[in-house]
Write a structure and sequence with these properties.
Length: 972
């Protein structure tokens, strides 16, 4: 569905090697790449390239093409093409880089799209990964072995192993000993020459010397030079006693003796500038499950830093330092402990955590840990807690610091996060000096925090780059930071985020001329044509950090707070089809940026032409992006805004008319399903699918609107009579309109009825429920809202809330809803209600059936029989309401084994998206469907009929409401 060519770009775009020919246009480049790559994986349209033009840093560069290789062979071909055409290559895995490492004006290789293989080896002692594996997924695979990977960056839920390795990322507990450099066991890499080396092979060193003798012998010569320079050797050893990712990992020359071993460890932290990391085997570390945590409040920064030594000696796994500005940025947020409010201006905090393998070890060492805390001079008494809820609240303070600045920044500014390291013994003085530097340049709202155990400090600030004055202010700040870190404290300009573009001009200043010369020779040995990620790590331009700065125009308020971090991307249903939430926002900003420049109408027209399908039509508006977004942006709200603008006045009036007469829609829906199945019986499913596909094509061409496409998984119509229920009820049961229209799926018992199942289960539990006879024609309004029909949404909602108030006896009885998306839509209805209905709403108790069954019914129900194994699909609305754990517990009680696929997420059926754009559901469910069908199970269950259709389509297994599982398990 994604056209791949464009005529927009002029020749000469990407950075070029000296003497190279004029670069081809994006269209010409794409045509050439398609001679050896599948066209669907060569992205040259402007909208695709804009979507990959930024990472989580303050930089932006428009690539000439984005390609998505599937194996080493294709990477080797791309290396050959890059050398022939002198076009730079840059690797990108997750795009969460904070220093501009994952962007380029050349060819961008999106290695996170397909290279996602992972295997646990050695009983959990090792993990074999490709660069596209997300760190959090790696830890999830290791959880059954009580193990995890060593690096633990704050972005581990979204950062991929390619970036974690290439940046030598660390984190809060990782320190130096457990980073990627020290936990690496073997690697398969591909050199720009095309040479592939698997260092685990017994003849790896011989192959390296034979196939690339210039590089292999050059590495040995550099090692010899370093060993013969005692001063340089001592400096290298000293630099790597603490966190340090500035420049190349020169410690590899001292730690290893052979070319392959040296080069493998040089690739850790090399930011894709030397070779391609195709696969790595990492040694895992124990995942210590028993934890004790506390927030320690000190009168001054000096007092907090003075406590580091004793807490480290007591075994603290994490020591997170926060200055008063950090705490102030968080103190008004809900759930923040009262103790941090009203602290003196000089105060500081340490978040300390101790970790143990088991309760026995904790009992032996917890007293010493508490004694170390008790010996400190604190603003308030502190007690280490092992309560998971309290620990989560404490970590919320630390993890919320970066997004707190992002949320508060002015529109049109970019969030910048820098990380430096100081000798731990000087951390207090350095932190105060750094604060003075920030305030001296007017960054009074900057927050300062970091991994105190390692002397690592982060500072976060908001900065605009719309004028030369803004840029000069930032330049002066960086100059002073460099002077402070390098000249005054001999620290590290980059501790864990990688050198990137912002510190590349200062590598020589920190390391000195001799070390820098070795780095230059290393780069020349591995990449003599300087085509791999040029400008990153080594850059002779003293002002390189001021080029390609990201300018963020103001657009819609729903998305202005976006910091383009990419945390939303792994959750997005359309991530492997069109765009992610971050990319949708970037495209919207690019359109506005071009409009403000007023210079490229052709580019604006191209983006606007692709905008409807790429941005609007294939957004599932599931809201899961807001769950993982640091500043809680629901990109679906932007989609709804634009969908609303797409509809004409007549369409809005028609939608309101439908909302006033929803009973007719119900009848029409049942009739359409009945006629569809009748026609399917007469002409066959294939013919009917082609016919509706043809109608879809005609409708799109003539009306610019899609048409529902028939599929084999379409349900039969629900029987019209409602199940009998008692009026002497403990709760009111509101069957959603979906439940009232859609009956059993093909392959399901034709007598299956979800409404009857809930009524009978409740009766068995002695908690009868009542279905009002006038329930027909009432709706949560979600179908209107998701399509952008706001007025119709309000009509439907207000009508239903009025009925709820009456049925519930003015709020006396709870309302139980059987479809989770409808429950969520009703629970979040208040802003869309009239003032009178808001009062009624406030008196109501609206329960999802999962909550009702788990909390009220199951405790009173004997389990008569259990299925052996079941699979669950938690719907996105259930995730947002926090009911997934209850659904799992229900299934566990009714079966011997309940499985939630590791990559379960939104199925993207999204009301009717799955019928209008079936490719969206197919893309969203591909991985989950594979995981769900690795072996056969006795049942497949969810809590939304439309989601069940989508998962049935994805797996070929019939998904049913979990209520049937409960009914079957409790039936006498």
């Amino acid at each position: 569905m994604r056209a791949r060519s464009t005529e927009l770009d002029k020749p000469g775009g990407p950075a070029r090697a000296a003497g190279a020919a004029v670069a081809p246009s994006a269209q010409e480049l794409g045509a050439q790449l398609c001679t050896f790559l599948e066209p669907a994986r060569v992205l040259t349209r402007l909208i695709d390239r804009v979507a990959f033009s930024s990472d989580a840093s303050l930089y932006r560069m428009l690539p000439q093409a984005v390609v998505q290789p599937v194996d080493i062979g294709e990477v080797r071909q791309l290396f050959r093409y890059s050398h022939e055409k002198r076009i730079p290559l840059t690797f990108r895995s997750g795009g969460t880089s904070l220093s501009g490492q994952a962007i380029t004006e050349g060819i961008l290789l999106d290695v996170g799209r397909f290279l996602r293989a992972m295997r646990v080896e050695g009983g959990g002692r090792f993990l074999r990964v490709q660069p596209g594996v997300i760190g959090g997924q790696a830890n999830q695979a290791l959880r059954p072995y009580a193990a995890k990977i060593g690096p633990d960056p704050a972005s581990i839920s979204v950062a991929r192993l390619g970036g974690i390795l290439s940046n030598n990322a660390s984190g809060m507990c990782c320190g130096v000993a457990q980073n990627a450099y020290h936990t690496l066991r073997s690697m398969t890499f591909v050199l720009p020459s095309g040479t592939e080396i698997d260092t685990a092979a017994p003849d790896a060193e011989r192959i390296f010397l034979e196939r690339d003798p210039r590089l292999a012998e050059g590495l040995l010569e550099l090692r010899h030079r370093i060993l013969n320079n005692q001063a340089l050797s001592r400096r290298i050893r000293k630099k790597y006693l603490t966190k340090n990712t500035i420049g190349y990992s020169l410690n590899a020359f001292l730690d290893f003796e052979t070319p392959a071993a040296i080069f493998t460890h040089l690739l850790i932290g090399a930011e894709g500038t030397l070779a391609f990391i195709a696969e790595a085997v990492l040694a895992t570390v124990p995942d210590l499950p028993v934890k004790s945590t506390e927030l320690l409040l000190f009168r001054t920064m000096h007092a907090a830093c003075a406590a580091i030594a004793s807490l480290r000696a007591a075994g603290a796994a994490a020591l997170e330092l926060m200055d008063r500005s950090s705490l102030r940025s968080m103190e008004t947020l809900p759930g923040i402990p009262e103790g941090i409010r009203g602290l003196p201006d000089a105060a500081a905090a340490l978040l300390v955590e101790f970790q143990w393998l088991d309760q026995s070890a904790a009992r032996q060492e917890a007293a010493a840990a508490q004694d170390a805390v008790d010996a400190l001079d604190l603003l308030r008494e502190a007690f280490l807690t092992s309560d998971p809820g309290e620990q989560e609240a404490l970590w919320k303070i630390r993890k919320g610091l970066f997004p707190s600045v992002g949320a508060m920044r002015a529109s049109g500014t970019t969030v910048i996060i820098e990380d430096v390291a100081f000798p731990v013994e000087h951390l207090a003085d350095a932190a105060l000096d750094l604060r003075r530097v920030l305030e001296g340049h007017g960054y009074h709202d900057a927050v300062l925090f970091g991994h105190a155990k390692d002397g690592n400090l982060h500072f976060v600030l908001a900065q605009g780059f719309s004028s030369t004055r803004d840029i000069d202010r930032y330049r002066r700040l960086i100059d002073d930071v460099v002077h402070l870190v390098v000249e005054r404290y001999d620290g590290a300009l980059k501790a864990e985020h990688g050198t990137g573009r912002n510190m590349a001009p200062f590598v020589e200043r920190e390391w000195g001329r001799e070390a820098y010369a070795i780095m230059q020779e290393l780069k020349n040995l591995a990449d003599p044509k300087n085509l791999l990620n040029p400008g990153v790590i080594l850059n002779p331009d003293p002002a390189a950090h001021l080029a390609h700065l990201k300018q963020i125009p103001e657009v819609e308020p729903e998305i202005d707070r976006c910091i383009e971090c990419g945390f939303c991307e792994p959750q997005c249903p359309s991530r492997d089809l069109t765009l992610t939430p971050r990319q949708r926002i970037m495209v919207r900003r690019e359109i506005e940026r071009l409009k403000e420049a007023g210079s490229d109408r052709k580019a604006i027209a191209a983006l606007n032409a692709d905008f409807p399908y790429m941005v609007l039509d294939t957004c599932a508006v599931d809201g899961l992006c807001a769950v993982t977004c640091p500043v809680k942006i629901d990109t679906g709200s932007l989609t709804k805004r634009f969908r609303q603008l797409r509809h004409g006045l007549l369409a809005h009036r028609a939608a309101v008319a439908v909302a006033h007469n929803l009973w007719m829609t119900e009848e029409a829906g049942r009739l359409a399903l009945a006629l569809g199945h009748l026609m399917e019986a007469l002409v066959g499913e294939t013919f009917l699918r082609r016919m509706t596909g043809g109608l879809d094509a005609v409708s799109r061409r003539l009306l610019d609107e899609p048409f529902w496409q028939w599929c084999a998984e379409m349900p039969y119509p629900q029987s019209r009579p409602l199940p009998a229920s008692t009026t002497a009820a403990a709760a009111i049961y509101f069957p959603s309109c979906v439940s009232r229209i859609m009956g059993p799926l093909p392959g399901e018992d034709r007598g299956s009825n979800t409404m009857r199942a809930l009524v009978e289960v409740a009766a068995r539990a002695g908690i009868p429920i009542h279905i009002p006879q006038k329930v027909r024609g009432n709706c949560c309004g979600v179908p209107f809202s998701s399509k952008g029909f706001d007025a119709a949404h309000r009509v439907a909602l207000n009508h239903t809330i009025e009925r709820f108030f009456t049925w519930s006896e003015r709020g006396h009885l709870p309302i139980v809803v059987d479809t989770s998306p409808c429950t969520y839509g009703l629970r979040t209805a208040r802003p869309h209600l009239s003032s009178e209905n808001q009062k009624r709403f406030d008196s109501l108790t609206i329960l999802d059936s999962i909550e009702f069954v788990h909390d009220r019914l199951l405790p009173s129900l004997p389990i008569m029989r259990r299925l052996r194994s079941v699979v669950l699909h938690p719907v996105c609305s259930g995730m947002k309401m926090g009911t997934t754990s209850r659904l799992v517990r229900i299934a566990q009680k009714c079966s011997e084994r309940a499985l939630v696929p590791p990559d379960a997420g939104c199925c993207a059926f999204a009301g009717d998206r799955g019928l209008l754009f079936p490719e969206l559901t197919a893309a969203a469910t591909r991985i989950e469907g594979t995981q769900a069908t690795k072996q056969e199970h006795d049942g497949y269950f969810s809590s939304s009929r439309t989601c069940e259709i989508g998962m049935t389509r994805a797996t070929g297994r019939v998904y049913r409401s979990y209520l049937h599982l409960v009914d079957q398990a409790t039936r006498p």
